[in-house]
Amino acid sequence: MKLRFASLSLLGLCLTLSAVPVMAQTVYSNGPINGNTDAWAINFGSMVSDTFNVTDNNTTITGASFGMWLFPGDTLTSAQLSITSRPFGGTSYFDETVNFAQGSCIGNMYGYDICTENTSFSGPALNIGTYWLTLQNATTAEGEPVYWDENSGPSQAFHCCDAMQPGTNAVGTLPSESFTVLGNSTTTSTPEPNDPALFLSGFVGLAAVLRRKLF
Q: What is the pLDDT of residues 9-25, one digit of tens each?
């Protein structure tokens, strides 16, 4: 009876392991936060668009993190995030208002809080290619301006409009911003030694051995 109970318990453990969700991976990183050079407004009429690359087909975007400049004590609550084929336009793959959770913050020489802002969402499934991620219409807890940190990473970037002059439509290039795009690729691959599927097969084999010993 003890061996039979052990076999059933082992099978339950295997089924539990098979249900473990896939963790989000880094799809693209434009480099770390700078925090001391410059930053660009993403509210009060201003928007910023940066490129990111997808290197695997069927990659589902599930979130992102950004470096932001905020007034001391303020927090970024939401922003309109879009993924398109061109800056501020073209084919739209995603366009929603997303919420943010604030990570660590540190003050800079200009008196701003430089914060990591994280968001998760049910994004599009993208194939290999280059896309544009745009932030605009951001809101903060205190209703203040918020600025996307400039870090001069490998992305291309554009800025539209002047936060101090709503309604202007000037578009210009600028050094790119600090951000990381997260997601999962559904491309089939051979399991690695630490792959849960391979780990599961080992447990199933062990369960079979215990069953033979029982009977």
A: 333 434 333 333 457 89
Tell me which residue of 62, 4, 7 sits closest to 206, measured CA to CA: 7
Nearest to 83 by CA among 55, 58, 64, 103: 64
By three-state DSSP, how is residue 52 classified? strand
Q: Pick the closest to residue 76 from 88, 87, 64 (CA basis).
A: 64
pLDDT digits (tens, 9 = 90+) for 143-176: 999 999 999 999 999 999 765 555 555 678 999 9
- The residues spanned by each domain of the chain are 24-187
DSSP 24: P
Fold held by 24-187 = Jelly Rolls (2.60.120)
pTM score of the predicted model: 0.76
